[in-house]
Protein: Threonine synthase
Amino acid sequence: THQWRGIIEEYRDRLPVSDTTPVVTLREGGTPLVPAQVLSERTGCEVHLKVEGANPTGSFKDRGMTMAITKAKEEGAKAVICASTGNTSASAAAYAVRAGMVSAVLVPQGKIALGKMGQALVHGAKILQVDGNFDDCLDLARALSDNYPVALVNSVNPVRIEGQKTAAFEIVDMLGDAPDIHVLPVGNAGNITAYWKGYTEYAADGVSRRTPRMWGFQASGSAPIVRGEVVKDPSTIATAIRIGNPASWQFALAARDESGGLIDEVTDREILRAYRLLAAQEGVFVEPASAASVAGLLKAAEQGKVDPGQKIVCTVTGNGLKDPDWAVAGAPQPVTVPVDAATAAERLGLA
Ligand code: F0G
Structure:
């Protein structure tokens, strides 16, 4: 009888809702904070994973989407639109179903993971594949919402940030205070903005005594914030963060500078190494973009930037099932055996 009620009910007093707001929820949030044994050993720190792939549609986007769709409903919207590298569209499509709304999604042609496309399809979204990248999709989504009766639910909509800040609340509620360092992947830069807002709100109200240093990591081929300039043709295997002109760029810089943090890059090779480590040694299956946080932590540790004894939280943003191609790629094909215990035992190395 006592299940988690979703982020709006759990944090109602810290979100822009009233008693009459029609809450649209799939009971998102309340995600596991999992101690990371191998990462803790490697860094000499106490490392935790905030496993956002455990949200209803398999990514952190649900925290923002419950707010965005709830407010759209409150304002009487009949249709919502978003640009997406896949997770936002999956979430928008699902929450639109709950709200009885039409969803339209714009995705970069050929550059979104199959699982995410499947989600948008099965939830009945109207999907357009755009001949361009995410940044082009976002320009188009803004133009459509400016000129047609459709509400924009990308993270440029400030209520998305309000919803996503609740992940920081959950971490402080679990640990009793903010960690020393919070690490996360950066794409459009909404999430780093949201976490920083959550941590600073809790600290300002005395719920926590401190705020963490915010460490964000972009993929090397899509690292405009690190380079200090727009990347025209971003590339990375981590399609979720294949973004060359992040909408919340300035907020990400503010989070970095106000927290004494950093924004750096990790290569696709480093991302895949962290992806495999998380699955094979921590038991946590994430999508490649999510592994950018852990890849960044490991890189920083190798560079001697991580003093031992600290409390560190890495957000792993999306479920590995979204993009299983990378789990299968390069792995040996399972052998086929007859229905015979002796043969099976021999092949399993038991005999
Ligand atoms: N990790 C995953 C799995 C994502 O899907 C995203 C963003 C990020 C990290 C980066 O978060 O954009 O707030 O800096 N995905 C967006 C989408 C762009 O359309 O699903 P950010």
In short: Residues 59, 61, 84-88, 155, 185-191, 240-241, 287, 289-290, 317-318 surround F0G (CB under 6 Å).
